[in-house]
Specification:
single chain, about 260 residues, mainly alpha, 3-stranded antiparallel β-sheet, 9 helices, globular, disordered N terminus
Length: about 260
């Protein structure tokens, strides 16, 4: 993991340290402006920079919000609470991916309002965490968001990001990949058929070929995407400032965007 240690105007301090320092000064000015009585009655809780990705700060509040947004990820069902360390890894990956999307062609990856609305409707109907709260109803959805300290606007932004990542993956990695009939037949023979017990009806190869092709295609895309993200991290400037959040470099791309 590369670490950026110097920046113009900051002497020997890192950019991240400068950001944290400026953020602290901004909070200090706010306290002073309020006067001693106001500062005593209403203490100001200062946010802090926990990481910097190519000159972009990730705050402690971002990590906290990411742990709460994890409830919207169907892929985390049964995995328990998202840890702050994993949340930060997801935020680092997200920042790298979003920077790359903007460099290449942000508009082509942007989902429409209708796509975001459809995904939100699907989440409200099918999310495991919503089963007992009737999220399909407005009252149930409002109660669900309140219980997880989320807002409709933040949820919509989160879903838009996930759809943007999926679109970007489709455009950048999926096109041009070919799965041969031999690969499909081998998966059918070696992987699918052995899953059936003796006496069970086994579907014909022609019947399941489209689904097998999709599985193999997605595997190929995942490998390409993971390698691409790993390369982004190696080339980028990533500095984790909080030792408690620093982990070995094991990227999780945006927290199971699929």
């Amino acid at each position: 993991m590369k670490r950026q240690r110097t920046t113009a105007g900051c002497g020997q301090a890192s950019l991240a340290a400068c950001l944290a320092l400026c953020l602290g000064f901004a909070g200090l000015r706010q306290v002073c402006a309020q006067g001693p009585t106001a500062a005593t009655d209403r203490p100001v809780v200062l946010d802090r920079v926990v990481a910097v990705v190519n000159n972009r700060a990730i705050l402690a509040s971002d990590v906290d919000e990411e742990t709460r947004l994890a409830v919207l990820d169907p892929g985390r069902a049964g995995l328990g609470t998202l840890t702050p360390r994993t949340a930060l890894e997801q935020l680092i990956s997200r920042s790298l991916i979003q920077q790359q999307i903007h460099e290449e062609d942000a508009q082509s990856a942007d989902p429409s309002a209708a796509e975001v609305a459809a995904r939100l409707s699907e989440i409200r109907r099918e999310l495991p965490a919503c089963v007992h709260q009737n999220c399909a109803s407005d009252a149930g959805w409002k109660a669900f968001l309140s219980s997880h300290e989320l807002t409709p606007e933040r949820v919509e932004s989160y879903l838009r990001y996930r759809l943007q990542i999926l679109r970007f993956i489709e455009l950048r990695f999926r096109q041009g990949i070919q799965i041969s009939p031999q690969e499909i037949a081998a998966y059918y023979k070696d992987t699918l058929v052995p899953q059936y017990a003796a006496g069970e009806a086994i579907p014909k190869l022609a019947q399941v070929s489209p689904r097998i092709q999709e599985i193999l295609l997605q595997r190929r895309v995942n490998v390409l995407f993971d390698d691409w993200l790993k390369n982004l991290r190696q080339q980028g400037e990533v500095e984790v400032l909080d030792p408690a959040l620093e982990t070995p470099e094991t990227p999780d791309p945006g927290g199971s965007a699929k």
